[in-house]
TrEMBL record, chain A:
CDD domains: TM_PBP2. Keywords: Cell membrane, Membrane, Transmembrane, Transmembrane helix, Transport. GO terms for molecular function: dipeptide transmembrane transporter activity. It comes from the Bacteria. GO terms for cellular component: plasma membrane. The keyword Heme does not apply. SUPFAM superfamilies: MetI-like. The keyword Transport applies. This is ABC transporter permease. Pfam families: BPD_transp_1, BPD_transp_1_N. Residues 95-304 form the ABC transmembrane type-1 domain. The lineage of its organism: Bacteria, Pseudomonadati, Pseudomonadota, Alphaproteobacteria, Hyphomicrobiales.
Amino acid sequence: MPVYIGKRLLVAIPTLLIISIFVFSLQKLLPGDPILAMAGEERDPATLEFLRQKYHLNDPIVTQYFSWLGGILTGDFGISLRTNQPVLELIGQKLPVTIQLAVMAMFFAIVIGIPIGILAAVKKNTWIDYLANIVALTGLSIPNFWLGIMLILLVSVQLGWLPASGYESIFVDPVRSLQTMVMPAFVLGNALAATLMRHTRSAMVGVMSSDYIRTARAKGLSPRQIVLSHSFRNALLPVVTLLALLFGELLAGAVLTEQIFTIPGFGKMTVDAVFNRDYAVVQGIVLCTAVGFILMNLLADIAYVLLNPRLRATL
Amino acid sequence: MTMAQNQILSVRNLTTSFLVDGEWKSVVRNVSFDVGPGETVAIVGESGSGKSVTSLSVMRLLAPDFSRIEGSVMLAGRDLLSISEKEMRGVRGNDVSMIFQEPMTSLNPIFTIGRQISEVLTRHKGMSNRQARAETVKLLEKVRIPNATARFDDYPHQFSGGMRQRVMIAMALASKPKLLIADEPTTALDVTIQGQILDLIKVLQEEEGMSVLFITHDMGVVAEIADRTIVMYRGEQVESGPTEEIFHRGKHPYTRALLSAVPKLGSMQDRHWPTRFPVVDITNGEAAEPVEVANTVDTRKTPVLSVKNLVTRFGVHSGLLARKTGAVHAVENVSFELFQGETLSLVGESGCGKSTTGRSIMRLIEPTSGEVALDGYDVLRLDQFGLRNMRKTIQMIFQDPFSSLNPRMTVGAAVSEPFIKHRLGTAKQAREKTADLLRKVGLSPDMAGRYPHEFSGGQRQRIAIARALSLDPKVIVADESVSALDVSIKAQVCNLLLDLQQSLNLAFLFISHDMAVVERVSHRVAVMYLGEIVEIGPRAAVFDNPQHPYTKKLMAAVPVPDPARRGIRRGISNDELKSPVRPLGYQPPQRQYREVSAGHLVQVE
């Protein structure tokens, strides 16, 4: 297994290099001169030239890329043009917030989506199945921002049960932290739950009509053993792959959700950085996201191998 | 009724209906039979006869929402149809066990085989995991799986088809059931493996003293295994009785029709040319005399297809960078000639390279080396354009008539497509050609507007034949073209192929694993084993005087539809089919051939 993980990490290196080139050229391709943005009202050619020299912007582009890459590799992601803080430090502050949101959202998605998916498959073509489908379609169709606003109106404004916005670190005040996060995580997890439910259902329906489930029934196993042990683990294989892919959707959804609930996370930082042309921050965010995505897929692949003995044998 | 009380299984007036589009349609009607202690009863019939539904009804394994079972099913005096589902779960896998047709898909891929077998013991016998493990190892030994202890923790994909079927049998025997229901347990297996499994079931039945209900479409298997036989036809039980009676004095026309359609290995001993299957009148069961066809082969001419030293290998890649670590030697140094009007059969078991040979000749697969001369084309040196032209000369018919026709294309469009795409004439000519072809294959021209799903398997195979003929080819590669068909349909399609050979002077490369059919339709036969031809010669020579050990083994394994052979043990070893995967740098040995008689060559070991 460690060898397998090592190999997979090695394979990730070229992917990351390609992403880094892309991220680097992003800055060069975008309209607008960062030096002009930085200089503000100042238009003295000497000052501009000084700034260009200072930031090595007169060097050949390849040299610029490698010195940038060298910085990244030594943990130097540059400095935010807005706040003058190192980018790594900024990310370090915001990332845990979004990770907490993502994990909680994933939790909601799994806890809602998978059991309902299994239930719908077992009760295929009954009112339970149809009801689950309607719920899933509704979940998919309701836009995040609308559901978020409605929940704030109902739960926070009308009932006063949960705070409408804000954030508290889980290490400082866990209860308060969960209170502030429950609603955003539910909103974010909701759409994923629907996708997950549909896929779990179709995977389960496929597995349950397979020959080996007929064998399991012919052995006299109980429905519980057949569904949870013989069917579900097989149905989990495609679902695990889906979970990793949903991670991207989760990040995209986080941008919006964090705006609605004014959570100072990664998503909000992204939006701010883009609007402020804070290139170093945008680059840092894109690289971080890419690494996160690769890690999620690696985790999915590892889970896949653990679940599937045929693949385990090839390790 | 006193009789019924001594029976292990007693089925009375079993009627099973399915809910189709809101209506109940009966698929099994009024079936009654008994299975006595230690007895083997076979239910035989073609697809759609209701034989599998009968067995699933006994087990109550049909979806309860969409099926209805009426009548009575008594298992040792207990009515299985009136007990609750929960009680029934205590019967399944405990008093009655079942094995199925598809060993490749009938085991759960994510659990070890040991766990899957011991599950029965922990479920029904209340054993602890450790006791169940010890018992499972004994069971694996009983079904002759080598290294039973070590293989307990292996997963299904680490076993071959035959070994998986042994695992299924071990699982079925785990709780020492009173009755074993075997639903086509050997149909998906190679013939030598089928022989092993049949032997094993017979031996275990004697050891355990259980009763067996054997579902099959194969009269040869019935003759070998069953004490009594029930013949089913379109949901009805048309005849039942001792197997001997059924085979020799079957009364129902369908029984006789079925039996006369069964190709019998060795039935061609005194015949010189391929012989049509006897046409049976289904209303009275009278069979017309089988007609020997006229000779169509002229060996004085140049062969239409000549294959020399054909080699096809596929790389085996593994590791991170997918380095080539070996090769499947699918076709190794194969040479033969095929004359106009001749049928050469390639026979062998799965993985022997017979299909790859056919595809390599057509260049559907790129061969590694060799020479193929086809009606003046140097096939292996053709460019894309030449290849397209060449394919007018050689066409193919595939095994599965259900998946080899595009479901969204009308039959007429499918048949005329090659003609149109090769620009052989106008749309009107294409229509005329299609009508003519449909007539030639025994269908009516007005069927051209219909879609494949409106046809039966046999009719679809006729359509596939019509499509293959639309370019007026000289050679047809028939890759297991009759293997998926029911016996009676198989006989009809074989007859059609023989008739077409007579009228169009076609050459057939007939690829099949079915020795009895091959004996019937071939002029010459080539036996393939691990990618090589081990024996080739005129049909009569190879079948009457087989020389190579593999040919002999293959012939001995074919079940013969003669109940007198019941109880015969072949004593076939547990050998598995060998694999043609070789390490990198493997040099295949230079093979020598010895001439037994004119044109009859055998590989010297």
